[in-house]
Amino acid sequence: MSVDVNTVRRIAHLARIAVSEDEIAPLQGELNAILAFVEQLGSVDVEGVEAMTSVTPMAMKKRADVVTEGGRADDVVFNAPATEDHYFLVPKVVE
């Protein structure tokens, strides 16, 4: 795939980047080099390679799944101006 001058102008317009006529040719070369690299990546054999989320192995930090004291709904809604059955009541804003 190759990027032409009009495509460079369109990309710059869509990205809201001001590009002068002198900058179009170098940008065209850079975009074509990027696309060539992406095409080259498509030919890499990744069969059997495990997907990774980071370049350094790490375990997810998770908190312990423990039961807490709970059952404090009255304390949670204590300062609310209006409540009903342990729920906050808010004014209706949509008709």
From TrEMBL:
<comment type="subunit">
    <text>Heterotrimer of A, B and C subunits.</text>
</comment>
<protein>
    <recommendedName>
        <fullName>Aspartyl/glutamyl-tRNA(Asn/Gln) amidotransferase subunit C</fullName>
        <ecNumber>6.3.5.-</ecNumber>
    </recommendedName>
</protein>
<keyword id="KW-0547">Nucleotide-binding</keyword>
<comment type="similarity">
    <text>Belongs to the GatC family.</text>
</comment>
<keyword id="KW-0648">Protein biosynthesis</keyword>
<dbReference type="Pfam" id="PF02686">
    <property type="entry name" value="GatC"/>
</dbReference>
<keyword id="KW-0067">ATP-binding</keyword>
<keyword id="KW-0436">Ligase</keyword>
<dbReference type="InterPro" id="IPR036113">
    <property type="entry name" value="Asp/Glu-ADT_sf_sub_c"/>
</dbReference>
<comment type="function">
    <text>Allows the formation of correctly charged Asn-tRNA(Asn) or Gln-tRNA(Gln) through the transamidation of misacylated Asp-tRNA(Asn) or Glu-tRNA(Gln) in organisms which lack either or both of asparaginyl-tRNA or glutaminyl-tRNA synthetases. The reaction takes place in the presence of glutamine and ATP through an activated phospho-Asp-tRNA(Asn) or phospho-Glu-tRNA(Gln).</text>
</comment>
<dbReference type="InterPro" id="IPR003837">
    <property type="entry name" value="GatC"/>
</dbReference>
